[in-house]
Request: fold
Amino acid sequence: MYEQIERIPADKLVSLQEKRLKKIINYAYSNVGLYKKKFKEAGLRPDDIRNIDDLAKLPFTTKDDLRNNYPFGMLAVPMKDVIRLHTSSGTTGNPIVLAYTRRDLENWAKLTARCLSVIGVTKNDVFQNMIGYHMFTGGLGYHYGAELLNATVVPAGSGNTKRQIKMLKDFKVTAVHAIPSYMFHIADLCSEMNIDPIRDLYLKKGIFGAEPWSNTTRERLETIFGIDAYDNYGLSEMSGPGVAVECEYKDGLHLWSDYFLAEVIDPISGERLEDGKKGELVLTTLCKEAMPILRYRTRDITILTNEECSCGRRHPRISRLLGRTDDMIVVRGTNIFPSQIEDVLLKIPGIRDNYQIIIDRDVMDELTIKVEVTKDIFNDEPFSLLNLKNRAENELKTVLNLKTTVELVEPQTISGETEKTKRIVDLRLV
Ligand SMILES: [Zn+2]
Reply:
């Protein structure tokens, strides 16, 4: 359905990007006070930014910029042209407000439709959208994309898991959108309800996101539900989900660069990094009307590549997220991302996907990892628990180069039904 734009030749994509970049730069400069100010401070005129290389001259936009302009300081259009508002899930102070014109919503639906179409969703699918609606962009974002593809949409939202399972079964749902850890909760309840996810459900594919997840989690999801599990990426500041998605090769996520210009920078120096280097993803919206955002620091750590993908789609790929700049924990001088810990833990049989990293300081920083184990292991003899603990501690030491304490706990001690698990508890700050 979106073949033409997905397979646009590289030179055509670049000229489309540059045309849109010049337009959005002028538009943001003329309509958003913050950008006029940023350009002036940097001694720049809109005409100074003519191509993607020039973009590096522009100052970044940060989360604080958006927060400081609460609620409507970032708007480039009069309020009468705004037809929807969302907010980010700010836990302290003002949230970030996201505004959309009608065209913004149409473009957003096209983007999520493109993502769903890449993973094979068609009008023949029944699509259960098991993610928060309301102010969170995850639910409504994919809702309209799936409708655009004429799939049958079940707007389930989050929570009420037994009802979710009943609908999955009775409506013969073939495709889902969910948070990966929620699917494990579904699997737990399925076994309580005597439902075999492969025999009794009809699932074929799922698109997952809103929390970092590893390839090991993917394998587990695929085995438990008999599905193809795909990663996708998005953030409210760019509209919501629909920025990037994995193709059938599952080797990085294609980032729709006719709508978003991607750069990767060194999070400390702010210098732009070349292709293939790990750093912070910076995005520029190329088409947004209500809230154009230039060089937005996403705080997500990834690797960008322009190398051609085996699928033939020409849009560059970002690697699955390697962490967030805010999540990077420095323990005894070592940089650690929770994803590294998750990768180690999930490869060990008997360990579940729920874990919590606790950092405390006694004389030195101490890293404790609380992790749920499967029921059978917990009921086993004490020595098998000890073996599991030793194995986890040894394997973590090899990867992190750091001694940790692993604490094994019973299933569902850490997980909640709808709340995202708080992965990191830093008691050094208390
Ligand atoms: Zn591909």
